[in-house]
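User: Sorry, what's this?
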Amino acid sequence: MPYKEAKVEKLYYSIGEVAKMFDVNTSLIRFWEMEFDIIKPKKNKKGNRLFTKTDIDNFHIIYHLVKEKGMTLKGAKKKMKENKEDTEHNFEIIRSLENIKGMLTDLVS
């Protein structure tokens, strides 16, 4: 049986890596961190932000609400506070449907 390397998931992501994931400036990441209390990066001794997978998931939801749906920051904050579970659930459904759409598009091509 061939040896398979285990996929290693990173525990922490730098602010540059997070900005690259969303194709935004690091200043926007810092701004969203200040605006949304659900994003709480750890900081190392130098003061560099270290974001967890949970922070990344929250960024995905915020990005979806603000950039893709066009909500204001105030509206996105309100939505995240009032019904975070529904927002997360809806986002997961959208992500799944986009994956299915991508697979179907690949099959047709």
About this structure: The radius of gyration is 17 Å. Strands lie at 13-14, 42-43, 49-51. The helical segments are 15-22, 26-35, 53-68, 73-82, 84-108. The first strand starts at residue 13 and ends at 14.
